[in-house]
Amino acid sequence: MDRQTGPYQRILLKLSGEALLGAEDYGIDPGVLRRIADEIAQVLALGVQIGVVIGGGNIFRGAGLAQAGMDRVTGDHMGMLATVINSLALQDALERLGIHARVMSALQMHEICEDYIRRRAVRHLEKGRVAIFAAGTGNPFFTTDTAAALRAIEIGADLLVKATKVDGVYTADPMKDPAARRFDRLDFDRVITGKLDVMDTTAVVMCRDNGLPIRVFDLTRAGALVKLARGDDIGTLVQAVA
Ligand code: GTP
């Protein structure tokens, strides 16, 4: 693809499973899924290649199941399967918009989707397909945030885009503390030492060590993802400060 007009050639979008809940208590809100697919289609139309990692928290969350007494590894396996369900739903929503998408799973399930093979993933992206990376890293004890950092680094993304329900990183939870301030820019180390709620520490350290900037933004604001892909300075940018 040579239509790229903005600063990014390739981005990795991390969505939480909860982002798909919308008005539902459990599962997937079809309207929300359609809107996200539509925004991804607009990003592609800018000539930006896009990979996606989705969490599974709208269906099962391994850590939560473990707290309730379940074996942690079993809980994480259930969480990984939940990410496959969400990934298939997004693939379907994209295909209904005429966008080519490929789910690539870290766990083998050939009847359902492709295996994750890095070189194939890059080929899909170069052909203008959306690569949706499912089943986390394929290992228990790793979050889908870490899977997103790993896949972003592997595919050579220019930016890791972390979708949340607030428009960036704040000094405190803005839902609870009206005095909370939003950061425009943050250094990786400040995120790690300040225990700022961006992504889990493993994910942030991987991004820091591999020079991959993270932008945290509010996915619930219509058009935000497209603006960001165009290079607009929205949300919070986490990067190395010299
Ligand atoms: P190119 O080789 O770049 O043309 O990619 P492609 O994905 O279009 O070609 P391929 O012939 O590899 O795949 C054709 C279709 O089969 C695509 O929809 C793939 O997602 C799908 N596919 C490929 N491998 C698997 C697999 O192991 N399991 C499942 N379920 N589908 C697969």
What would your notes on this structure say?
- With 242 residues, this protein is an alpha/beta fold.
- The chain has helices at residues 30-45, 62-67, 72-96, 118-126, 144-154, 188-193, 201-209, 224-230, and strands at residues 10-15, 49-54, 101-105, 114-115, 130-134, 159-164, 169-170, 182-183, 185-187, 214-218, 236-239.
- Helix 1 links the parallel strand 1 (10-15) and strand 2.
- The model has no long low-confidence stretch (mean pLDDT 94).
- The structure holds guanosine-5'-triphosphate.
- Residues 102, 110-114, 123, 127 line the site of guanosine-5'-triphosphate (GTP).
State the gist of this model:
The protein has 242 residues and is an alpha/beta fold. It has helices at residues 30-45, 62-67, 72-96, 118-126, 144-154, 188-193, 201-209, 224-230, and strands at 10-15, 49-54, 101-105, 114-115, 130-134, 159-164, 169-170, 182-183, 185-187, 214-218, 236-239. The chain is built from eight helices and eleven strands.
Largest sheet, if any? 9 strands, mixed
Shape descriptor: globular
What is the count of DSSP helices, taking H or I runs of 4+ residues? 8
The order of strands across the largest sheet is: 4-3-5-2-1-6-10-11-9
Q: Distance N terminus to C terminus?
A: 33 Å
Strand content: 15-25%
Helical fraction: 25-40%
Number of strands: 11
Ligand names: guanosine-5'-triphosphate
Return Rg in Å. Answer: 17 Å
- Average residue-wise pLDDT: 94
